[in-house]
Amino acid sequence: MAFTLPDLPYKYNALQEQGMSMETLTLHHDRHHKAYVDNLNKLIAGTEWEGKSLEEIVTGTFDADACTQSGIFNNASQHWNHTQFWNWMKPRHIDVLGEVDMPAELEKKIVKDMGSLEEFYNEFYAKGAGQFGSGWVWLVLDTDGKVKVTNTPNGVNPLCFGQTALLGCDVWEHSYYVDFQNARPKYLINFIENLVDWENVAQRLENA
Q: How far apart are CA 70 and CA 58, in angstroms?
């Protein structure tokens, strides 16, 4: 069965007051994400990966020693990444913009493992802004049971390392250039302060 492009969990203009425009969401979802899905379906047709789950394809085609990953991996991982990304954001009332409302258990875990929320934010911003070229910045639950911030190039994601992705932010230019031009740090701050669905992040931690 072929993979399909999931609908956004909100309207295209739902995040506009929070710093992600309708133009960005339309371009990002309808063109970039759709292209990953379409390319993946073409590449796996008639191969051993046809009929496998997305997670099986990502982990099965990842080569940690390769300088560049295969086309199947790149499109599968980016399909997985973006499917999660849409659900890591939610519409918020304009009156609460700039406030991070984090569930208590998630906050307690971050403080325990990383020292403080401020240290988490600063590391998230630093690793996201410092990711050379295209990639992602993540809050993960690592194999040692601790939460930590990581960054990965291109479409590489925490599945490749046996980690659980609790939160991820796309730092490819197509995710922020329309709204923030080349100001990636401002985009990351806006993502944390105005866009993240912290209940979703907390639920992933609980499920893990």
A: 10
